[in-house]
Design brief:
This protein has a two-stranded antiparallel sheet with strand order 1-2. Helices cover 76% and strands 1% of the residues. It has one domain. Strand 1 and strand 2 form a beta hairpin. Helix 3 packs antiparallel against helix 7 (117-140). The protein is mostly helical. The protein has 13 helices and two strands.
Length: 267
């Protein structure tokens, strides 16, 4: 019990330090981060919900319909509340160990604690983002904007972050060997974002079947259903998640068994 408390205290101290180092202050860092989140959400709402909202586009054989008003805002928030913390966790995992080499060398247990910082920050950011998202849904339509299963949406969001965390551990170890994965991860995250229906709606069944193999689409789809009661668009078996879970477990095992010692030697 004492060991667990010591580890949690070290994790909290290092997470606080990480905010300070990145943003010249923990409070300033958190505030600036959420200003960025708010700007992204507002920009996507303005472009896809207002400027390009409404109408049906049958070009290229893909029927794409965009929502407007509170319906689109809920649709957007259902995705962004998970995507923003998740993408931040993945991106931070690509550089956190290599950026803190000196601290890890002189602090016992720092490498293990530092590895958990992206997950701790992602869970915290998800919690802060979810609260106003639930409030917006309830205020936009008190009768049915917020689904009665929305508490499960919070639990499932944390679960999805935990499922992705072993992959992030693997990225952390690899980033030490390759110095910095941030440029590659930024490109990969952009591809993942635009290949997932987060700011647009795809109605074509064939396209949705293909997209169901995208784990992020399955996660976002479940979040929208649990939070707002929106119909599931992905395949009922959620093949993307069925692929992600074993891959994540294998990556986690590799990062703990083989790569951990190699990573420690490089640090």
């Amino acid at each position: 019990m004492q060991s667990l408390r010591t580890r949690l205290q070290l994790l909290f101290a290092l997470a606080h330090r990480d905010y300070v180092v990145q943003f010249a202050g923990a409070g300033l860092g958190i505030g600036w981060l959420f200003i960025q989140y708010l700007f992204q959400i507002a920009l996507f709402y303005l472009i896809f919900g207002v400027v390009l909202g409404g109408g049906v586009d049958d070009s290229l054989g893909v029927e794409s319909k965009r929502l407007t008003g509170p319906g689109f805002l809920n649709y957007l928030l259902g995705a962004m509340t998970l995507w923003l913390p998740l993408s931040e966790m993945i991106l931070r995992s690509g550089s956190i160990l290599s950026e803190n080499r000196s601290l890890i060398r002189r602090t016992p247990g720092a490498m293990d604690a530092m590895s958990w910082i992206p997950l701790a920050q992602a869970c915290f950011h998800f919690t802060i983002l979810s609260t106003p998202a639930y409030l917006v849904a309830w205020l936009s339509d008190p009768a049915g904007g917020l689904h009665f299963l929305f508490p499960l949406a919070y639990v499932s969001g944390l679960l999805f972050l935990l499922i992705c965390f072993p992959l992030c551990l693997y990225l952390q170890r690899i980033s030490v060997l390759l110095k910095d994965l941030s440029p590659i991860l930024r490109l990969g995250l952009q591809i993942l974002f635009w290949s997932t229906p987060m700011v647009y709606v795809v109605m074509n069944p064939d396209v949705l079947t293909i997209m169901s193999f995208n784990p992020l689409f399955c996660m976002v789809d479940v979040q929208r259903y649990l939070t707002y009661g929106m119909p599931l668009q992905s395949h009922a078996f959620l093949p993307g998640l069925l692929i992600l879970v074993p891959l994540s477990l294998i990556a986690g095992m590799l990062s703990r068994i083989r790569l951990k010692e190699v990573c420690a030697d490089f640090l």
